[in-house]
Amino acid sequence: MAVADVWAFGTLLIAAFGLGTALLSALSPPCEDRTEFAALAASAGLGTMGVLLGLLGLFGSLHAARFLIPLGAATTLMRIAKRSPGPTWPVLHRPSPGMALLIMMVAAALLGSIAPVTDIDSLDYPIPIAQHLVRYGEWRFWPDQALSAYPLSQELLEAAVLDAGARRLGLLSGVEVVLVTVLLWSLARRLAREYAASWLPAAAFLASSAKEDMLVIAMTVAATLVLYLRPSLGAATAAGLFAGFAAGAKYSGAVVPVAVIACVPFCCGRNRRLTSTMVAAAVAAASGGLWYFMNLLRFGNPVAPLLPGLGHPPLAASAIQEWLNGWGYGHGPLEAILTPIRLTYDLQAFGSRGNWINPLPLLGVFGAVADRRRQVALPLLFISLCIYSVWFFMGYQVARMLLPATALLSVPAADVLIRFWRRFRIVRYPIGMVVALSAGVVIAVGFIRAERYLIDPGGFLERETMHYADIDWMNKHLDPSRHRVATWFKTCGYLEIPWMTLLPNYQAEIRPEETGDPQRLYAALKRQGFTHLFGRPDDFAGLDDAQILVHSNPASR
After folding, report:
1. For residue 458, is pLDDT > 90?
2. How many CB atoms lie within 10 A of CB 427?
3. Is 399 found in the same domain as 501?
């Protein structure tokens, strides 16, 4: 690992922890457990850092973060050194088999994240947007990256470490995996249950990515955890804070503030219901509203490019509608009931990689409903139901967007598994086998990924990344100051030459009707200053007379 990676991530995490500790100390939520407080502080710090970076970006001062973050890290270390009475060594106990398995899974996920990001979804928009933030030093809407209208907390954090010289962006998601693990474990302890580690096989794969999923999961779990603290105005304020951060991490988290605030008067704010609810709502709006407010100013639509009938979103309505309808079986009431069942066997229709973890939410729903302490399980179940409802009726039905709800429902799901394990000997072997195999997949993926990278670091990207050989050729032979590349491929995050995918749901420079006609496409490409086309031989049919072949690679994949 390069020194620049250690420096960039080290200063970011230390500064975020110091910022979050100061913020939570000011709010004074009733946290008795040090581990729980540390996890909440780190989450609060990352969320606050994303908002502050967004404000810097609005004023074109994003590059100032390369000085402000190390300054914050140094201040944090000085405060720790000043207040610490001396080194204290924790008392180590022999871990239970479940805890040992959990530690191995998280360690493997972290180990796998040291390799460069090769995840397709990360290379098509999160990393390119972070690169735009670094290149221009500001946060604005870029038509060639139309998804820059999304909430950009994760991308701004990635931009901060990129600007400091880091290149292994997967480490950020790896750290967030650890954070979510501790938060979920703390939530399970608050509910007087065994720790719920069974969600990790689904989400630990994301440790090698650079997407926003782990950040929105962390903030959702943190907000839910705070709901179960002793009633106080500080706890209600913290719940609103984390709920807002969830909304600022991704559109799939936009419903979290509504769900959490609805729970506040019945949970951590029940002693002062009205005041606690109003304070939580105000704090959630402050911590998560920046992205939505800017979209309202820019497009007249707080969730652009979604809801194509509202305002003037950057993408064509036909492209947005086709995108939203590209997954699932529809949005009718009957489908709302059938979809949770279909998620267990037909994951291809919902854009997921595997179906062996998706029965977990159903088991969690059963556990929450069957729990005799329903006042304990209902807030968790209500938040998960809100996430599912918005995902089904208003969002695009990709199973990955349900990971925050899956993480929450893993707590009652784990409780059901443990009860069955203890009561029925006949099911112990099947349960143990499923848990061991699920954990084994995560551990194997992490170690194999790290092994492939460490054996041949120089050839890792070419082996693991689509079209990397061609991208590397363009980086070496094209001039970024004079050339611009158009392609139908999305995974060009490592292309250092200005580029744009022509897919109509990713860019707003060329209209969908222009891409369907060769003559209009040629005129649009000339208008937007493109000099090179990158794709398969038949990707630009009809433009043969306007093309000169400069590079060919039949082995490209």
Report:
1. no
2. 12
3. no
